[in-house]
């Protein structure tokens, strides 16, 4: 094998620039390698600087000379590691073989390559301006903005504006809600363009005042989402971290200042177009500055501000490297050296920051993937959704697992066996059909229950007290004066016609009126009988034995009640059922007779039951108002109606024992269904989405 320690080191590129940087946190001097072609900066320490001064000799000679001429004692491996670093970042003068390799790699990045489209779909930049000359003139003209008195004045005006808005908070929130319309969204977009333009201009002006060159400004697209950007890469030339901090925080300071002044302007202006414009500027600037730009978990302003405050370059990369090493050491038992020496407390903070960054990005990228799926036509949305998951989530996990597999021989035997056992259990848990629980929500009610209403508007005479009743007992007695009067009138008319019939029978001349009188008598008798039947309907009796409850305490004898007003409810508390609702994708796992556990809200124990019936079509309307999200329930419904927003199937369940309460009770259910695996469910769901959304 060729020994590189005795071969001359390849020369550096001639276009590189080496400049001094601020000392490291330990006080060690540092330098920056400036790659002028791509405008990138690489920070190196004292050892690397001494090696570069002697570059071109063999690694062994470089090591010996640095040891002889300085207090450093590098070995050959450290010099070779520096060579590897320079090669990886293309800082060495390429030989013909390397040129051919770079050419082949660049050919794979052309627009005809799928890799090119993938990379540029995820992120690409479009430079629009080279503003250096204009920025220099503008920085001189706006020098007064950078005076401390200006900052104090803006801060004071912002506080006044916030106080005034708090006094008009209802009007402010109402104006924000009213602005969510087509015209309002367009205005928000316009305000966003203005705020972000000033944001980037703030970065550029501060960088110009510090003597840096702003290469270009333009639009960057992150997963097709446009955002303005400013090239302030030369900020790494600055030795002082406070100067870099000024550049990184200039955008947020500018946007917050705009938000504060717009807030004050809104509070002082009368209603009109100007006040609406100030509202859009204030809300977009406040929300985006605090919620997006200030986040340290993405490479936005908040990240660079935190890095400069801590004077900790490459915070994400270095913290992630520590977190990966911590995972390997704790889970696999590997004795990998730490990438950098840090005190234990600082290392734990960096590892925690890396984990928080991973979780934040996982949630963010999943959200972006869902947005891509929703806002593109469905088939393309599915493809882009899978690209998001693969590029941002699956590939990083795959790279780490590949490293674990490559290092499997170094894992201690006991830890390796535990790892394989755990991995096997995970695979079994995902692949073996064991999962059979189907989740549902529902309302428990008495199997026999009757809400009692008056058959028509009537006057209350008596109302039985709540309690146990037997079948046939009277619950409510009502009367209707007009009906009673009509019955008495019909009975009196019937008596009159009977008496007349007796007189006609005694008078031979009255036989001609006999048929007509009998007909009138029949009509009055029928009217009287019908009135008695209606009056009998006003005596409401219990059709079965049970418990009479839910009486209106405000009802008094003599009051009138209408047909929509419930008088009470009669239930049989010995038998209970549950009206449950199951998602469309789960209902096919159920069968009549399956075991059920019902967990009533507010109770720690479960009630057993079984499935009685399964609806064959989706439920058109919820049977119980308390399930609707409009009334505080867990089921999303359309507006104020009880129509479920998603497809649900009703399942009737019989409970083995009565409920502890006599009231209808909402709860969750676990229904034993067909056994299935997690991977199988995931595959069926993905296939269903593809078939449904692609229109096959």
What does this structure look like?
This protein is of the alpha+beta class and 696 residues long. The protein folds into five domains: 4-107; 114-312, no CATH class; 314-415, no CATH class; 449-561, no CATH class; 571-694, Elongation Factor Tu (Ef-tu), domain 3, CATH 2.40.30. Helices cover 50% and strands 18% of the residues. The protein has 20 helices and 20 strands. It has a six-stranded antiparallel beta barrel. Strand 1 (16-21) and strand 2 (30-35) form a beta hairpin. Helix 13 (315-332) crosses helix 14 (344-375).
Q: Summary?
A:
The chain has 696 residues and is α+β, with helices and mostly antiparallel strands.
Structure characteristics:
696 residues; elongated; four-stranded antiparallel sheet; 5 domains; 20 helices; six-stranded antiparallel β-barrel; alpha+beta
Question: How are the SSEs placed, and which strands pair?
Answer:
Elements: E1 16-21, E2 30-35, E3 40-44, H1 46-53, H2 59-69, H3 76-88, H4 96-107, H5 114-122, E4 123-129, H6 132-141, H7 148-167, H8 169-178, H9 182-209, E5 217-222, E6 225-230, H10 241-268, H11 273-293, H12 301-310, H13 315-332, H14 344-375, H15 378-406, H16 413-431, E7 435-446, E8 449-452, E9 458-463, E10 467-469, E11 474-479, H17 481-506, H18 514-537, E12 539-541, E13 546-549, E14 560-561, E15 568-571, E16 576-583, H19 584-587, E17 595-600, E18 607-614, E19 648-655, E20 665-676, H20 678-694
């Amino acid at each position: 094998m060729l020994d590189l320690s005795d071969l001359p080191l390849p020369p550096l590129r001639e276009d590189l620039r080496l400049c001094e940087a601020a000392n490291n946190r330990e006080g060690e001097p540092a330098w920056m390698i400036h790659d002028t072609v791509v405008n990138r900066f690489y920070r190196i320490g004292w050892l690397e600087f001494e090696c570069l001064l002697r570059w071109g000799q063999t690694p062994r000679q470089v090591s010996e000379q640095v040891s002889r001429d300085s207090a450093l004692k590098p070995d050959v491996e450290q010099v070779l590691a520096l060579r590897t670093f320079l090669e990886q970042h293309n800082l060495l003068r390429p030989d013909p073989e390397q040129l051919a390799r770079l050419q082949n790699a660049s050919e794979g990045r052309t627009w005809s390559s799928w890799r090119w489209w993938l990379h540029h779909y995820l992120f690409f930049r479009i430079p629009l301006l080279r503003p250096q000359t204009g920025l220099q003139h503008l920085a001189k003209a706006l020098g007064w903005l950078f005076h401390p008195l200006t900052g104090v004045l803006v801060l004071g005006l912002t506080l006044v504006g916030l106080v005034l808005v708090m006094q008009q908070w209802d009007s402010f929130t109402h104006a924000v809600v009213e602005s969510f319309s087509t015209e309002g969204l367009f205005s928000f977009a316009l305000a966003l363009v203005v705020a972000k333009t000033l944001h980037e201009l703030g970065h550029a002006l501060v960088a110009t005042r510090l003597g840096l060159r702003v290469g270009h400004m333009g639009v960057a697209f992150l997963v097709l989402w446009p955002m303005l950007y400013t090239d302030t890469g030369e900020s790494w030339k600055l030795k002082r971290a406070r100067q870099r901090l000024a550049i990184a925080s200039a955008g947020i300071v500018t946007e917050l200042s705009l938000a504060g002044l717009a807030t004050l302007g809104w509070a002082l202006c009368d209603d009109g177009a100007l006040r609406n414009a100030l509202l859009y500027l204030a809300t977009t600037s406040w929300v985006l500055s605090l919620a997006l730009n200030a986040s340290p978990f993405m490479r936005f302003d908040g990240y660079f501000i935190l890095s400069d405050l801590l004077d900790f370059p490459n915070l994400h990369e270095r913290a992630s490297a520590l977190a990966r090493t911590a995972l390997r050491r704790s889970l696999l038992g590997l004795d990998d050296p730490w990438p950098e020496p840090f005190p234990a407390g600082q290392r734990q903070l960096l590892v925690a920051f890396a984990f928080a960054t991973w979780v934040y990005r996982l949630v963010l990228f999943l959200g972006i993937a869902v947005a891509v799926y929703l806002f593109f036509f469905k088939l393309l949305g599915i493809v882009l959704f899978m690209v998001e998951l693969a590029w941002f989530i699956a590939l990083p996990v795959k790279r780490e697992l590949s490293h674990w597999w490559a290092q499997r021989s170094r894992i201690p035997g006991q830890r390796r066996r535990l790892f394989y056992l755990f991995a096997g259990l995970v695979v079994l848990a995902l692949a073996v059909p064991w999962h059979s629980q189907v989740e549902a929500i529902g309302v428990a009610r008495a199997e026999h229950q009757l809400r009692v209403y008056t058959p028509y508007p009537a006057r209350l005479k008596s109302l039985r007290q709540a309690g146990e009743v037997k079948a046939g007992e009277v619950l409510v007695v009502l009367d209707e004066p007009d009906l009673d009067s009509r019955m008495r009138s019909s009975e009196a008319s019937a008596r009159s016609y009977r008496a007349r019939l007796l007189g006609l029978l005694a008078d031979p001349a009255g036989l001609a009126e006999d048929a007509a009188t009998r007909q009138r008598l029949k009509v009055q008798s029928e009217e009287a009988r019908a009135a008695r039947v209606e009056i009998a309907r006003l005596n409401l009796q219990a059709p079965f034995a049970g418990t009479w409850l839910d009486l209106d305490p405000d009802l008094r004898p003599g009051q009138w009640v209408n047909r929509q007003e419930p008088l009470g409810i009669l239930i049989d508390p010995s038998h209970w059922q549950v009206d449950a609702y199951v998602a469309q994708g789960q209902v096919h796992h159920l069968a009549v007779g399956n075991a059920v556990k019902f967990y009533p809200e507010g109770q720690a124990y479960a009630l057993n039951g079984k499935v009685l019936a399964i609806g064959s079509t989706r439920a058109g309307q919820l049977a119980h108002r308390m399930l609707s999200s409009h009334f505080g329930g867990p089921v999303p419904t359309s507006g104020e109606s009880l129509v479920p927003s998603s497809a649900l199937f009703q399942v009737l369940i019989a409970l083995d024992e009565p409920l502890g309460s006599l009231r209808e009770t909402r709860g969750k259910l676990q229904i034993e269904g067909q056994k299935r695996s997690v991977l199988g469910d995931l595959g069926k769901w993905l296939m269903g989405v593809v078939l449904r959304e692609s229109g096959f």
